[in-house]
Every structure is written in structure tokens, then in C-alpha cells.
Amino acid sequence: MFDGVGINLEISVVDLTTGKVGPAKLMRGDGGWTVGELKQYIGESFNLISSSMRLLILDRISSVCDVIHLENGESSLKDVLFKGGVFSSHKLHREQLVVPTIYVSSDPIDFLEKYKDSLMYKYVDFHFNSILLDITLPPPQPEATLSATNVTEGGTIMKIISMNEENKRKIKVQVDKRITLAQLKKELVPLIGVPPTGFRVYEIRYNNEEYKMEKLDETLIDIISGSKLIVRLGRVRIKLYLLQVNNTNFCKYMMEFIVAVGTAVREFKKQIIEEAKVQGIDCVLELDKMRLREKRGVYPDTVYLDHQVIGASWETCYVEPLKGHNLNIFILNCIAGFIFW
């Protein structure tokens, strides 16, 4: 019935080594072809091996962005490309109302994988179900690292498209809109260097107003591609007490300090020294001759090491001046020796 009817197709070749979905190129086809014949023609036109070729299309009938695998080589194009009477309308009006885009890969290794396990499926699925976000990050903490793409067994979750080279605080990411806010925060952890509980995510809306995103179980499905987000470190209010072990009044209130969650202990100590000078607090504090300790009641407890970070649950803390250099490592060695004994 449709034999000999010329049709317009768009062919997009997917590079499985990079995950890049190539630009769609117009190709003239025949409505009477089978999927196998289409593969043969694409192979000749784009210099690809048809025997290891996968063809995917977007399901235009489904309300979600599902992709369909054109697996059966005997299926006719009129059945798989023009559902819902679209081809009949084409015949009636003598013009093609829809130009299908076919996503193509030809990789002999990936071809052997089950469809849903293949890189081809994961890349195209991510292409259809992802959004672009412009994210402003806080200054990176010591534990921050850079990861261009996070690929899990289920597919790509987030990919960094670009990054401001000057301060690395502004990034453009492509992210799966089906993930939750909790998952997005988890993906941002390596870029920020603090745990998910240590920062908040805000969406910048009209008039540059910041809307706090709070529902961790909500997906990003309602966020428009191109939206701007800003990440701010959470802040905690800590009461600081001066610990003077050889003084009768060994517990002396110093000040209340508001600090960003995720700040390294060593950096926090620097801030304490500066603020103590500003407030004129009568004590001598030197960076390598002081330590921070947890305060339980009036008793000093855990020693916080320089590489540790401020947690959201911190409330009170001892600042302990030392006569010698910081004894953190010595204490840890003593504890280890005691446990061994």
C-alpha cells in the first residue's frame, strides 16, 4: 500500500565512546522499506556496519519520553515510524506531517548487550530525559573533587557540560530530570566537599528570588531546562568556651560563632583566632598550638582533628590553648595503643 512512497527521515548517530548524540541529518527513504532495509541504507550512507546496528526512536504516543528499539528487521517502516494514522494523513495531504528522528549506533561489542543494558539505550534515554541546569556552587571545601560524568548501572545521572575556569563555582550540568533532590545533592557532594546535610539548594525564580528546595523525595521533573540553581552551605551557631586545664575556672565562655557547615576544623580555628582578636578576648591563640574539643556538660570530650569538618549538629565546643604543638596525632596514637593493650 505504501510501497514507493518517499519519506523524509532524520538520522542522528550516537558516539558510544563519548555519549554524544550527533546532530540530526536529513535522509530520504522509502515507506515500503523494512527496518532491515533501512539499516542497510543507513550503513551505506553513513559508513556504518548494519549487522551490529541499533536503531532507536522516541515514542511519540507515550506521555513520557520513552525510547523504542527497532529490533525486528522484518517490521515495515509504516508500522514502526508512523503510528496513529500519521502516514494516512501524509497520503491524504501529500505532505509529510512528521519527520521521525532515528538514533543510530553501530558497535559490535555494545550490540551484544541486552537492550536496556546497552550504552546506546542509556545515552539516548538520558538525552531525552535530561535537563540543563546552571548551578552556582559555594567555595569548594578541602574534600572537593571534580567528576565530569557520573554513570551508574542504571545510566547517566549527571554530566558537567561546562565550568567557569576562574573560580570553578559556576557550572552547567546536564542532569536526569527523573532523579530526586536527594539524588541531585548526592551528585553535588564531590564538587562541594561536604555531605548532603551540609548544604541547601535554592532555585532562582522571578526577580532573582531564591526558592528553597526542601522536599528531598521530589523529582526534578517540573524544573524547566535552563533553570538556575544556587547552592549555599548550611550554617550552624556554636557556643565556644575557653578550656584552661591549669586554671580553677577552667571553663570560661568565649563567644557565639556562626560558621558554615562543612568548614574544615583548621579553617574554623583560623576564624576563631581572628574573631578573638576583634572582640579583644583575653587569651593567646596560635593555629598550631590550639585544638577544638567537644563539650559534654562541663567536661571536655572528643578532640576534633584539623581535617574534620563542622557538622550540622555542633552546638558547644571547647577551644583549648596548648603549650606545645597540636597534640591531635599524639592522642590518636595513645588511643590506638590503649586499645591494643
UniProtKB/TrEMBL annotation:
Domain Ubiquitin carboxyl-terminal hydrolase 47 C-terminal: 237-324
Ubiquitin-like domain span: 169-215
Top-level taxon in the UniProt lineage: Eukaryota
Species the sequence originates in: Amphimedon queenslandica
Name of the molecule in the record: Ubiquitin-like domain-containing protein
Phylogenetic classification of the source organism: Eukaryota, Metazoa, Porifera, Demospongiae, Heteroscleromorpha
Pfam family name, one: Ubiquitin_2
Record InterPro entries: Ubiquitin-like_dom, USP47_C
